[in-house]
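Lab notebook, design round three. We kept the backbone fixed and only want residue identities now. Task for the bench partner: fill in a sequence for the structure below.
Input structure tokens:
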């Protein structure tokens, strides 16, 4: 009904749920605290809980690139991937850092951002990773890459790269009393 009506779904946890993503009408992923991953295959009636091996960090973001394949990032600087709809997760081999806060997956391209201006990218689904020089040290909380790479974060900072991350330009510098940006979106025609 296009969001006209909402139903409360109980995940059975008291964890803070930091991210949600759906594969289809029945299968939904949720990322929680301390590496806990939640999955439902019946539209939220029942939830399976899994604690990821190799991390104690909160799951900050989850993205699906093709069913059943997905990536997630953690507050302790790891990236994990699944090739079986979240049944198993393995370390994706990304360079470790203090915290990854968000990721974007556009077929074959994965862009991840985090604290201290950290941005990494893979153009082959995580087989190899490159650290990009964002030119900033502020925390980045969200990233999109519909063609250009755009990242935003603390104190209203927004940066953009129009050349696949070779360099970044500050669009909005961080300002005193400016709000943190925690989400970005793009519409039709990548606008």
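Proposed sequence:
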């Amino acid at each position: 009904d296009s969001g006209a009506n909402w139903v409360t779904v109980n995940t059975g946890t008291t964890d803070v749920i930091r991210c949600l993503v759906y594969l289809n009408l029945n299968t939904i992923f949720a990322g929680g605290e301390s590496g806990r991953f939640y999955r439902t295959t019946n539209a939220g009636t029942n939830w399976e809980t899994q604690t990821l091996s190799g991390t104690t960090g909160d799951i900050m973001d989850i993205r699906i690139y093709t069913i059943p394949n997905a990536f997630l990032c953690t507050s302790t600087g790891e990236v994990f991937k699944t090739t079986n709809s979240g049944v198993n997760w393995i370390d994706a081999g990304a360079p470790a850092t203090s915290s990854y806060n968000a990721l974007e997956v556009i077929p074959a391209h994965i862009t991840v951002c985090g604290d201290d201006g950290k941005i990494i990218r893979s153009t082959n689904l995580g087989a190899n990773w490159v650290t990009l020089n964002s030119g900033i040290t502020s925390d980045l909380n969200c990233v999109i890459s519909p063609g250009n790479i755009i990242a935003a974060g603390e104190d209203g900072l927004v940066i953009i790269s129009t050349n696949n991350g070779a360099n970044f330009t500050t669009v909005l510098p961080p300002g005193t009393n400016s709000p943190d940006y925690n989400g970005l979106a793009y519409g039709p025609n990548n606008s």
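Keep this in mind before ordering anything: The chain is about 0% helix and 40% strand.
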